[in-house]
Design a protein that fits this description.
Helix content: 25-40%
Strand content: 35-45%
Shape: globular
Structural class: alpha+beta
Number of helices: 4
Radius of gyration: 16 Å
Oligomer: single chain
Order of helices and strands: EHHEEEHEHEEEEE
Distance between the termini: 36 Å
Length: 180
């Protein structure tokens, strides 16, 4: 079987490619993937894996702002990672993450993501660490709000900024839909 890996910015993906990515995500995430989720993965770099049957896996990394210890950092936030159901357990998720991690490590102060229970195994095996501190978001109405429900699913990967201190919260920029 032939495997092809490609990275491209959203602007460089043809409408048909974006439609294929959206179809993959809708199918792989089984009814729990909406328009806000789709929007969260646009505007950054995409990693795509194609096999003989077509698009087999996808992930994206987009820029978000995160305040830590009084300093705003550029976070490479990983979004929309999925593998086609018949292509799972063949290392394609790892191939996707390898491409996204390369982008994070060379272009961002840190990497961050919110993981499902199934996804957490992949991320921890690749060196991502569960954030042990508080997670907050900057709400347009209420200001700084704590997100305790996100504190057991937020993972980080140090990059250009170096190690982070969990004694200090991560304060994420706001976005519509699920904040993280």
């Amino acid at each position: 079987m032939t495997i092809r890996v490609r990275t491209a910015h959203t602007a460089d993906l043809a409408p048909a490619e974006l439609a294929a990515v959206r179809a993959l995500l809708d199918a792989a995430i089984e009814g729990d993937f909406g328009d806000d989720d789709w929007d969260h993965g646009l505007g950054g770099m995409h990693a795509l894996v194609h096999d003989d049957s077509g698009l087999a896996a996808h992930g994206a990394v987009v820029m978000r702002r995160v305040r830590h210890r009084g300093r705003w950092l550029r976070a490479g936030y990983v979004e929309n990672v999925a593998v086609r159901s018949d292509a799972r357990r063949r290392g394609l998720g790892g191939r996707i993450m390898g491409e996204l991690e390369r982008v994070v490590e060379r272009a961002y102060d840190l990497g961050a993501l919110s993981a499902s229970d199934d996804g957490a195994r992949l991320y921890t095996s690749r060196g991502w660490r569960l954030w042990s501190g508080e997670v907050h978001a900057l709400s347009p109405r209420e200001g700084d709000i704590r997100l305790p429900d996100e504190e057991d699913s937020t993972y980080v990967r140090p990059a250009l900024a170096g190690a982070l201190d969990p004694a200090h919260a991560l304060l994420f920029d706001w976005r519509d839909g699920d904040v993280l």
